Amino acid sequence: MILPDRGRSDAEILGELDALRAGDARWQDGRTFGLVFDGGPEAREIAERVASMFLHENALNTAAFPSLARIQADVVAMCTDLFHGPAGAAGFMTSGGTESILMAVKAARERARAERGVTTPNIVLAESAHAAFHKAAYDFGLEVRSTPVDSGFRADPDAMAERIDDRTALVVGSAPQYPQGVIDPVPELARLAESVGASMHVDACMGGFVLPFMELAGEPVPPWDFRVPGVTTVSADVHKLGYAPKGASVIVHRTKELRRYQTFVFDDWLGGFYASPNMQGSRAGLPMATAWAVMQRIGRDGYIDLTRTTIATARKIADAVRATPGLRVLGSPDAHLLAVAGDGLDAFAVGDALIARGWYLDRQTPPDALHLTVSAGNAPVVDTFLADLADAVAAASGTRATDRSTDYSTLD
Q1: If you compute the radius of gyration of the chain from its CA atoms, what whole number of angstroms results?
Q2: Smallest Cα–Cα separation from 183: which of 163, 159, 212, 162?
Q3: What is the CB-side half-sphere exposure of residue 76 using CA atoms within 13 A?
Q4: Tens of pLDDT along the chain (412 residues)?
Q5: In Å, how far are 50, 87, 250, 332 from 245, measured between CA atoms?
């Protein structure tokens, strides 16, 4: 395509976009286990109304848009409260989990350099930690020291202790980790970080809007947040189980002093003083405002209800998988993430059969497995999914998928 000589009509533009969307995953129907999460019609409606209000606002300079400064402060404060942050905790909104992780790694590097004189830093993490930590280490020049998980797919403190030294800038724990949905032993990892003066980041991008409400609903949840001494940063995505539109995440630092390591400051430019707490310069106000609005619309009780529905749905699926010959659930998931592997069946062949029936699930390895991020939007169609899963298992029996790819994202 080239830029048209003359502007096209609204009808042409909207018609073509509708046609382009025809093959997209049907998240609106609860048929995706990832990527987009539906908090219900009220959350969708307020998000769409607020999106039009803040479509053009820019958070590059909140002096021009003080509404966005207030919105960001409010979202961070609400998250800080959920994560039991102490007085003086501070943070920023970001565009998503990857950017929150990037900023946590950058802040840890800067802290290690400023407070301990570390010039060749390393980051110690389990092989289950999100790939964004590897991206951040590559971008910011840290050595990655990856360790095996234990038999239950959790980070192994003993293995990590062997890799930590006086050049460690950051120790990573996940709550829960993405691949198998288990929570790492955060207290043990935080003690390791403290022993060398390193930062400790808890990646709660998946669990930040689930675990607090599980606990409020009376579910046992292992310690993972700022109540754990030594935890210095926590990240959480409002656009996952916070049910806000895409582009909204939060990173919270234990203190405002620690937060300053996140911000880049430059004062040797003909354009004047420049400071940025994010990877971006210009930042869209729309996702910030819609996150604020959705959190306000759902409220604490609403999130508890959505979480109860989510966890009940995830457990129903896990129980059905465990009762299905040829399939197994990997590990003992703590919340809403499930990995379904073959136990005599090819998991990817089962996945192909589910795709043919209109379901979207991620694929991962090792071992070969289907990945489900369950949310409240899946609850209305869970029985249909389980019936189709049974049919898919029958269809996949004795077959092997030819496509073995496990692309988490695309390069095209």
Answers
A1: 22
A2: 212
A3: 24
A4: 999 999 999 999 999 999 999 989 889 899 999 999 999 999 999 999 999 999 999 998 888 999 999 999 999 999 999 999 999 999 999 999 999 999 999 999 999 999 999 999 999 999 999 999 999 999 999 999 999 999 999 999 999 999 999 999 999 999 999 999 999 999 999 999 999 999 999 999 999 999 999 999 999 999 999 999 999 999 999 999 999 999 999 999 999 999 999 999 999 999 999 999 999 999 999 999 999 999 999 999 999 999 999 999 999 999 999 999 999 999 999 999 999 999 999 999 999 999 999 999 999 999 999 999 999 999 999 999 999 999 999 999 999 999 998 876 655 5
A5: 11, 29, 14, 30
The pTM of this model reads 0.95
Domain boundary pick from 296, 331, 361: 296
Q: Element (H or E) spanning 316, and its range?
A: helix 285-322
Is 89 found in the same domain as 33? no
154, part of any domain: yes
**64 and 178 fall within a common domain:** yes
Burial of residue 377, with CB atoms counted within 10 A of its CB: 0-12 exposed, 13-18 middle, 19 or more buried: buried
Quote the number of domains for the chain.
2
Sheet holding 337-342, edge to edge: 327-329, 337-342, 369-373, 362-364
Residue-number span of the structural domain to which 72 is assigned: 47-296
Backbone φ, ψ for residue 248 (5° rounding) = -135, 110
DSSP secondary structure string for all residues of 148-217: -B-TTS-B-HHHHHTT--TTEEEEEEETT-TTT-----HHHHHHHHHHHT-EEEEE-TTTTTTHHHHHHT
5, part of any domain: no
One domain, residues 351 and 291 = no
Give a yes or no: residue 201 inside a domain: yes
Whether residue 12 is contained in a domain is answered as: no
